[in-house]
Amino acid sequence: MFNNIGLPGLLIILMIALVVFGPSKLPQLGRAVGDTLREFRSSTKGVVEEITSDPAAEPEKLVEKN
């Protein structure tokens, strides 16, 4: 989808974001996006590890939790 944006397109997007949000809000927005991506990656990593775990080990996990 974003394979052919290029540098000029990216600069236009950044200029529009600067005009819309202002220079004081851009660092906060960047931080929020970074935190969201980090949380999404950790969540998906946990789900993938859970799915790919050994099915024979699942009863042991249930016994440990109870």
TrEMBL record:
Functional summary from the UniProt entry: Part of the twin-arginine translocation (Tat) system that transports large folded proteins containing a characteristic twin-arginine motif in their signal peptide across membranes. TatA could form the protein-conducting channel of the Tat system.
Protein name as annotated: Sec-independent protein translocase protein TatA
Chief location of this protein within or outside the cell: membrane
Membrane topology note: Single-pass membrane protein
Keywords: Cell membrane, Membrane, Protein transport, Translocation, Transmembrane, Transmembrane helix, Transport
Any Pfam family matching the protein: TatA_B_E
Record InterPro entries: TatA/B/E, TatA/E
Places the protein is found: Cell membrane
Superkingdom field: Bacteria
Subunit details: Forms a complex with TatC.
Record keyword Membrane present: yes
Stated family: Belongs to the TatA/E family.
Parts of the chain that traverse the membrane: 6-22
HAMAP family with a match to the protein in the record: TatA_E
